[in-house]
Amino acid sequence: MNTEILALAGGVGGAKLALGLSKLLPPDDLTVVVNTGDDEEFHGLHVSPDLDTVMYTLAGLSNPETGWGIQGETFNALERLTAYGADTWFGLGDKDLATHIMRTMMLGQGNSLSDVTLSLSRALGVAHDIVPMSDDRVRTIVETEIGPLAFQDYFVKHRCEPKATAIRFDGGAAAEPSPGFKRALESSDAIVYCPSNPYLSVAPILEVGDVREKVGHFPGIRIAVSPIVGGEAIKGPAAKLMAEFGIEPSCVDVAKQYAGLCDCFVIDEVDRGVAGEIESLGMRVEVCNTVMVTEQDKIDLGCRMIEIATE
Amino acid sequence: MNTEILALAGGVGGAKLALGLSKLLPPDDLTVVVNTGDDEEFHGLHVSPDLDTVMYTLAGLSNPETGWGIQGETFNALERLTAYGADTWFGLGDKDLATHIMRTMMLGQGNSLSDVTLSLSRALGVAHDIVPMSDDRVRTIVETEIGPLAFQDYFVKHRCEPKATAIRFDGGAAAEPSPGFKRALESSDAIVYCPSNPYLSVAPILEVGDVREKVGHFPGIRIAVSPIVGGEAIKGPAAKLMAEFGIEPSCVDVAKQYAGLCDCFVIDEVDRGVAGEIESLGMRVEVCNTVMVTEQDKIDLGCRMIEIATE
Fold this sequence. Notes:
- The structure is a homodimer.
- Chain A is built from 13 helices and 14 strands.
- Chain A is globular and about 55 Å long.
- The first copy, chain A, has a single domain, classed as Rossmann fold (3-Layer(aba) Sandwich).
- The first copy, chain A, is an alpha/beta fold.
């Protein structure tokens, strides 16, 4: 029996589980829908950081040190852009630039972000579908003590330092889910929330058009993996944001974000003690190792997702 | 007494003499007007090969091996563009890409090519004005036995191999000279035709709007340096083109191209024997070493230009 999975992913953490799933499922049985609220234009080029992280990871090109970017990267163009007085706080590498140049050219020719992503990922040998959450423009804006910041401004330029007060997704309500996302929402047997930041990576996906409603009425099983383990984020500002929003950083509060949208919540062994609290939110809890360091960790967690989805 | 010089240049050969002149003249006394008929769009980026060659040369950044491109260049982006299936016969380096990215962005923001060129060259420390021949689109098309080819198609992709039958400059008649070119035509005491290809590099400049007429009535002295020495082109396809057009490649025939537009024709020592033929075209002839290998050669030839202009 084939089980078709729709994985929702942000950047590095999401890409890890997406890789695990891609090692286990044939291409027809996996669609990875990726956050594009973080997209930004740098030097006139359309950059889609999360799409690229997932694409490079599935293509086996990603930098193993950082989880994002391309291995063996150089930064010669960026050095020259700096000489021209460009604002180069976003570290675009030479190899990575090729992606943004191609994407910008193809979008300029009237192709959708879905078509561009498919074309680029196939060219890199990725057999599974990587799909933007929407072909429409949605932008994650972090309201902070120093004013509203576009996501990359907040995340990269300001290193998540300004205290956040709210997050909004400009264009989200008016946006349509991409054709591939719509199709996967209809045909998949399970939705997997990869361990990505619930506020910054998964929330924008849910805010696209009627996605939240569709996920709420999804007939199959919805499985979430907590990106908060032992009260800390594996990567990125999730725990810091929770503290700023007055929430004790814990996987329980991640689960609260997914209340009504999740059937099975997967937590790490170290969080076994809070399983009861999460169950009281109306979700079943699964406990396993969720920290993915090696490729085998990614495959093992992917395997667990498939087991849960096919039970 | 200040002598203001307007230098007309194509790529490598023109850049050499422009460099020599720039080492001798204060910024106010030199304007280098550059061919943009060779401009091309690659991967959605606006590339101006001749402007860049002159800019990199005057900035001290150019690759001494080739005369074009940037020293210490890498090609990592191009390798990835190739992986994406892009047509990468035009060898854009990583450092060079920064120029095209900035230019494309600034043009997209509504800046003229003149403004962009000024901004980029000043950022690289070039004090002298480098000016495109026009801010309007002019494209050099080489009619060949295999059909019409855009200049870079002819020059780089096909390595000048197809037999040329004619050259045309699309958009030339309708184009306006750039503001800096107009200003220099009015204020300069001398025009110097750098030793660039008369058909492919200087002709497009003369074909812009009323430039040929203005140069014909130029009140100061007009000095041309032959790019053909001893019957051969120092670089590029000038001699091959002349042969295909049924002309014996020689500096005499270069002089014929400039008949009525030139007062003093400068030939190399090796061509001293044909001075009389050139004089019969109504030009005075000067003989000196015109082959610029070392920086001192470039300064010496620049010095000779200034001597002739100030006589």
